[in-house]
Amino acid sequence: MLAISLVFGSFLTIMFFILGILGGWAAREYMLNYQERPKMHPEFYDNHGNVIPDEVIAFRFENDYEHEDTDDEDTY
To answer: According to the model, what pLDDT value does residue 70 have?
Structure first.
């Protein structure tokens, strides 16, 4: 009985090892070839479509719609 369980256990271990290798390889191929990669903004490209090697500086301007110096009494 012990010999049968060792044979089946060894067979299942080798089978799952091979299945893991094949499944991992298939998942890697899918991720490399078929998954869409995020596109870069057009500002990062030059006129010929090549990526600009220089640093790109970005500025963010926020509008302040809440004015603290206005009084509610002045609006009437």
So the answer is: 59
